[in-house]
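Many introductory courses stop at the sequence. We go one step further.
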Amino acid sequence: MRLRLSSSFLAKIAAAGGLVLLADRLFWAGQGIGSNLGVFALAWTAATVALTPTLWRDRRSWIAAAGALLLVLPLLDSPGPLAVLLFGTCLAMAVLLPRAAQFGHAGRWVLRLALHGIVSAIGPWRDLIRLRKPFGRGLPRQRILPLLPLPLIGGAVFLSLFASANPVISEALVALGTPRFDDATLGRFVFWGAILTLVWVTLRPHRLRFAAYLPAASMPSAIPGVTSGSVLLALITFNALFALQNGLDIAFLWSGAPLPVGVTLADYAHRGAYPLIATALLAGLFVLVALRPGSATASVPAIRRLVVLWVAQNVFLVASSILRTIDYIEIYSLTGLRIAALTWMALVALGLVLILWRMLGGRSAAWLINANAGAALAVLAVCTVVDLGAVAASWNVRHAREVGGKGAALDLCYLRQLGPSALTSLAALEIDNDLDGDFAERVAWVRHRVLHDTIEGQRGGEWIWRNDRRLKQVETMLAGRRLRAGPSEGPVGRNCDGSLIPPPAPEPVPAPPAEASAATGPVPPDTLVPAPAALTNEAAR
């Protein structure tokens, strides 16, 4: 199939070239990726929207494009993998939605986007091969232009490879005024090719009929072993077991009754949090499979009432898991992963409620998938804006045992690992509290390392807007005062929590050989090496 050289195609080539040059200026010449990623994302979105006329006429595409623009903000503030993934998803959906007659459900779109990404990886190079126009009427320029890209680009690639391998060719090209061809130049060409492939995914998405590759979702009308009687008995059994577990949680977790001997609250809280969430997920899967809207089991009134009771018990079970995790955090400490776990538990509870809503309201499977996907996307979008590490650091500092809190001893290793996210919390710990002794020295060392790493990370292209605000916030908190100078590293160094690494123990002096002792006379008593206890006992016997 031939590809014609239209004005729209030329505009997309120009836009792709401009984006490649912008990426080279921001990332390669800037020597790093930071908030400049948001600048590139904004330019990429603008070029995609401007050069995709079908996007203008589709309301769904406008929503996706608006989502991409909103996600530019966290990329400008503090770029991360999650924000990059959500931005790319929104931008790709903005150009693909006009080609879909119906949205369907989010599960099919996950496969669609994955397939689109795989196929589009060869997009610009496939178009380059197809870029030709039949010879015939027309200006010579129109007939010649389609023939030039392939030999020019291919020749440049091979010439750069030969120049990097042959110094004679390299020096001759330098003498002609061309850039020196070395490993850095070759890497730069590879970088340009990667950026071109990336932006071409949305500037000219591949025309592929996704319906031919995506299987239709279907469920068997009858599942062996799943009848109204078996489901009724199963629900009675499940409700009884869940009532037992929830009753124990009410007694020990919610009411504060004393636990059995040998069981601590930390053990009770930590051991049950994640297995109970797995239990709730299995319960939701059972309702999805055995009680589909329109099935014989879903129409039995007794089964419907038992399902409502069971889902309610599952929601209470998830609430108990959340309380278990909170109790564990109060005993130990808060981390970003534990915040993510609490968020995941809340999503599980919402999913259970949506499953019940689907069964009682006769909603479709697509509605359930889209509702859960929408809730998950909303939570993930919030997570791109909120720094979970900073939230954890602030909580741990406020509740640390060393400053009179009811929490655990402050884990300075974890704060050191958080890096810039813990900077303001560490500075507040030093400024707002009268610390002394070894703890003050360790806090000063960790804060000094975090501050040094943050300042060094702001150099060049790795500058991040959020970290710049953190440094200014610390300066405001000081109000002209000076932080304690970072303590020395010590003779051996310091651990991640700022404690000194003890020097290695001296090696024991070996005992002189028996022959040497006999030759040199008796050994003074203060240099005698004590005999092992086993030998002493044997001699006594």
